[in-house]
Amino acid sequence: MAGRVVHIVGARPQFVKLAPVLAALDAAGKISSRIVHTGQHYDETMSERFFDELAIRAPDINLGVGSGSHAAQTGAIMVGVERDLAESRPDAVLVYGDTNSTLAGALAAAKSQCPVVHLEAGVRARDFNTPEEINRVATDRISSLLLAVSESSAANLRREGLPESQIAVVGDVMYDVALSIGRRAAADSTILDRLGVTPGAYLLATVHRAGNTDDPGRLDAIFRGLAQAGEIWPVIMPLHPRTRKALDAAGLTDSIAGRLRLIEPVGYLDMARLTAAARLVVSDSGGLPKEAFFHGVRSVLLRADALWPELVELGWSDLLPAGSAEDVAAGILGALEAPPGREGFPYGKGDAGPRVADAVARLLEV
Ligand code: UD1
Question: pTM higher than 0.90 for the full model?
């Protein structure tokens, strides 16, 4: 092969984004890929299952960093990546999204004089109180190639003075995945039967951002608000381990368990099925509201910022920042009454994987 890249992934959404990029690079046959798993997510339900379901080959190395403070996690990943790059000596490193694995991988690569390609560049919440925003902005600043999913992300990069020559709008690899997995999920996933819910007659909710889980008042308002909505429609909630711990610590688990269907994290096929068949998605996730949109499902964002401003502009997502349990319930019930969003599709044609592969090949001049 003419070129070599290393992909650095560590958290659940990054495994999903890796799948179409790896497939496209392999199909083009010009660039070989090495997969470095940082170990940020380590539970079987948060990691291995995604590799199996998305048919991603096993990582070449797992750094096994696990949990820790931001500095401990970021530092441990940097040390591991630096060591790996010293041996593997790739032509470029690909990092994905906005996690500590993204920033740590980018920093270690840039300081090893290895060009960094950032997939999902230019996403902005304009809130430096969140770890993800720090990770996004810092990663973009030290990347050589900034791959944006939409024009609004590219505009953010230009506004920050990043050079046009480094920016490419490639569309959203998550849409590539939604197209292929959506079909498989509809055919193969049995999650709706297992949970005993009917398409279009339940809400799907997820909560895991530190801003929500680590603020007891906010956590209480969100879960009691969801529980109120849960008296009208079944609410299915796959719980991130961080959220499970926070609910237990706050003593909330028992009081809400009867009104919300709290389940373990589900695999990607089941999640795609749950998303596509939901009446409404309620979430603080970066990616899930956009996946809901791909399936024509509205969402309520449990956050103050719109990572994907197009979704709010087109009327598919409502922002529901901090408020009381009553505010949360009212926001959810209001969204259930709202008309569907408008036409418009800003995230490409489902060919983002091959477009990423082309952009990387141009960077490597292969
Ligand atoms: C991280 C990302 C976030 C991304 C999310 C996807 C950062 C700062 N945040 O958040 O952008 O949307 O991943 O899920 O990188 N834990 C387990 N088992 C696991 C993983 C985590 O028990 O497999 C627990 C650990 O106790 C950990 C806590 O969950 O302390 C939080 O995990 P962490 O990796 O710090 O961040 P996420 O909340 O998953």
Answer: yes
What is the per-residue pLDDT across 15-48, written as a single tens digit (0 to 9) for each?
999 999 999 999 999 999 999 999 999 999 999 9
Report d(CA 156, CA 185) in Å as an integer: 34
**What is the band of 135 on the pLDDT scale with cuts at 50, 70, 90?**
very high
Task: Check if the beta carbon of residue 51 is closer than 8 Å to that of residue 15.
Answer: yes
For residue range 271-305, list pLDDT tens digits in order. Answer: 999 999 999 999 999 999 999 999 999 999 999 88
- Give me the half-sphere count of Cα atoms (radius 13 Å) on the Cβ side of residue 41: 22
Q: Which of 134, 115, 125 is nearest to 362 (CA)?
A: 115
Strands ordered across the beta sheet of 61-62: 61-62, 31-37, 3-9, 92-96, 116-119, 145-148, 167-169
Phi and psi angles of residue 249, each rounded to the nearest 5 degrees, phi first: -65, -35
The CA distances from residue 122 to 103, 118, 158, 285, in Å, are: 14, 9, 9, 17
Q: Maximum CA pair distance of the chain? A: 59
SS (H, E, C) 120-153: CCCCCCCCCCCHHHHHHHHHHHCCCEEEECCHHH
- Atom number, ligand 1, closest to the C-alpha of residue 213: 38
One-letter identity of residue 127: D
Q: Is the CB of 230 under 6 A from ligand 1?
A: no
Residue-level pLDDT at 118: 99
Identify whether 240 is a catalytic site residue.
no
DSSP 2-62: -EEEEEEE-SHHHHHHHHHHHHHHHHHTSEEEEEEE--SS-STTTTHHHHHHTTPPPPSEE
Atom 7 of ligand 1, residue of closest alpha carbon: 99
**With a 6 A CB cut-off, is 208 part of the ligand 1 pocket?**
yes
Tell which atom from ligand 1 comes closest to the C-alpha of 285.
12
Tokens of 113: 């004089």
Task: Determine how many CB atoms are found less than 10 A away from the CB of residue 127.
Answer: 13
Residues 235-263 have pLDDT tens digits of 999 999 999 999 999 999 988 988 999 99
73-128 residue pLDDT tens: 999 999 999 999 999 999 999 999 999 999 999 999 999 999 999 999 999 999 99
